[in-house]
Each structure stands twice: as C-alpha cells, then as structure tokens.
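Deliverable D2.4 — example input (structure tokens):
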C-alpha cells in the first residue's frame, strides 16, 4: 500500500449510510476468516472506522502492487451482496475490480462468491467511498458503478443521498478522460435527483438516448403517491446496462411495479 502525508485537510466526506448491527452468521464468518486476507484491502483504518488513514495515497503503483498488473479499473460504490461485481469480474478477467461497501455481511458474501470462483482480479474495501476516492490519483478509474443506492426517502434526508455535486467533482478527477459513471435506481425521485446533480455538470455528458418522463418536483416518504399529479418533463436516460445482472433486490423492485432507471454519464475527454 502506497502512502504519503497529505498537506491539506481532507474534504468533508459524504456520509450516506447508517451503521447497523453487523453480526456474521457462521457461513459468512467462515468466509471472512478464509478470504479476507486475500480480498480485503488494508487502508490503515483504526478498528471500527470506515475512514482511511490520513497518509494513504492510492496511485498507479498501489494498483500494480495489489492487483499485480496494469489493467482498467472498475469501481463499484455500494456493492451490497456482491452479485454484480463478482459476475463481471468472472466474465472479464482482463479487468481489475474494486468493490466498496460499508456493511461487513455484504463484504463477507462477496468474498464467499469470489473465493468459490478463485477470482484474482477483485478486491474489496470496507470504507466510506468518498474518503477513499479523495485519496486516489487523478485518472485512476475507468468506470464507476452505483447501483440502487439508498434512496433516503424522507425529504429531510435527501441531502444524505450518495449522488451529490461533491462526489461528482471527485469522480470527474478520478475517472480517466472519457471514463463512465453508471447509476441505476428503481426510485423515480432518486432519478430526478441524479438528473439535477449531473445533467448541468459541465464535466460530464449524459449518454442517455431514451426519453423518460419524470415529475419536476420532489416527493418524499408519505407523499410519493402525489408524484403522478405533479408537472412532468422529459429527461434522457439509458437502456439497461448489459453488464448488470438482475439481483434479488432489483427483482423485488420490478415485482413491486417500480421502473428501473439507468443513467450513464461520461467524463469530458478534454
């Protein structure tokens, strides 16, 4: 792991999660014991902390040291149970993958699946993603995935949503020129939120070519049923990303009648 002392104070980090009980069942505990030394990155964190060490620097040399090669890097923010990142890592052994997740059971499940497939191109980090991104060198990442982030449905909590202008600015620096940020949500109001954050950002281009009608005013928990009666406008979104498998989480959303919104943004190549 490469590290150097930072001369400036780190930016205030986005915190889009709530710490939960993380007791592992026997199966996941065995997976953690067996595979964490292979898959889990040591970020110099204090015990129980999701913030990285102050002197951490994630650069090309660190990538080569961890993965043992130079290859395009795909980062999933909020990898959950790991179904997507493991499936893609299995399908594309020529790519490097990094799964960022705060919840230990999800990480343990990801390790279990990765270990069963003996994957060498995947690593995991238990970290608040913006903290790690802030320590990465520019142009280190080829793609970022954010699939079904916590919607924070209450209006007063919308500011805690992961997709925010500050994160977009960080990713504009960390992605290679022409790099991609893929976002998916089954919450209509979150899709509106993404458009508000991203469509006006001059550092990104919306690659969507599918017109989608969305309310132009936000709703929250308890008022979502009013969305249909609000003024609507057309926004451009993407067809389903072929590299995203249908997880149990997404399947439940579809069965509940929710529409899946795929949004794809590309960093300017200038």
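Example output (designed residues):
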């Amino acid at each position: 792991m490469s590290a150097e002392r930072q001369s400036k104070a780190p930016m205030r980090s986005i915190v889009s999660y709530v710490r939960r009980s993380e007791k592992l069942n026997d199966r996941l505990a065995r997976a953690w014991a067996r595979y964490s030394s292979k898959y889990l990155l040591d970020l110099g964190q204090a015990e129980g902390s999701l913030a990285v060490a102050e002197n951490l620097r994630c650069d090309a040399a660190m990538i080569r040291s961890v993965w043992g090669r130079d290859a395009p890097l795909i980062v999933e923010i909020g990898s959950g149970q790991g179904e997507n990142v493991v499936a893609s890592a299995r399908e594309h052994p020529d790519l490097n993958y990094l799964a960022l997740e705060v919840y230990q059971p999800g990480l343990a499940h990801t390790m279990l699946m990765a270990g069963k497939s003996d994957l060498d191109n995947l690593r995991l980090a238990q970290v608040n993603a913006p903290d790690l991104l802030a320590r990465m060198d520019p142009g280190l990442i080829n793609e970022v995935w954010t699939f079904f982030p916590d919607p924070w449905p209450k209006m007063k909590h919308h500011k805690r949503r992961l997709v925010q202008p500050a994160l977009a600015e960080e990713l504009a620096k960390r992605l290679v020129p022409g790099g991609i940020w893929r976002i998916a949500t089954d919450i209509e109001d979150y899709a509106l939120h993404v458009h508000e954050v991203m469509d006006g950002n001059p550092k990104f281009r919306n690659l969507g070519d599918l017109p989608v009608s969305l309310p132009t005013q936000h709703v929250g928990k308890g008022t979502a049923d009013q969305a249909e009666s609000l003024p609507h406008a057309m926004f451009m979104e993407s067809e389903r990303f072929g590299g995203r498998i249908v997880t149990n989480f997404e399947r439940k959303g579809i069965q509940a009648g929710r529409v899946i919104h795929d949004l794809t943004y590309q960093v300017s190549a200038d």
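The chain is about 30% helix and 20% strand.
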